[in-house]
Design a protein that fits this description.
α1 (3-25) runs antiparallel to α2. The longest helix has 23 residues, at 3-25. The chain is built from 2 helices and no strands. It has helices spanning 3-25, 30-50. The chain has 52 residues and is mainly alpha-helical. It is elongated and about 40 Å long. The chain is 85% helix and 0% strand.
């Protein structure tokens, strides 16, 4: 996995942790989950485009 794809995957996992913590402490926010899903799809697209 190239460096940029690895960084993007790390950001996606970190984003999931942050969104989950926010949901547990404050309550669900649909826009945060939407943003995380978009980031996940972008990460998957990057990985597929790179062929890994």
């Amino acid at each position: 996995m190239p460096g940029s794809a690895k960084a993007m995957a790390g950001l996606t996992v970190g984003g999931l942790v942050v969104v989950t913590a926010y949901t547990v402490t404050i309550g669900s926010n649909g826009w945060l989950w939407f943003a995380w899903v978009m980031l996940s799809l972008l990460t998957i697209g990057t990985l597929v485009a790179r062929g890994t």
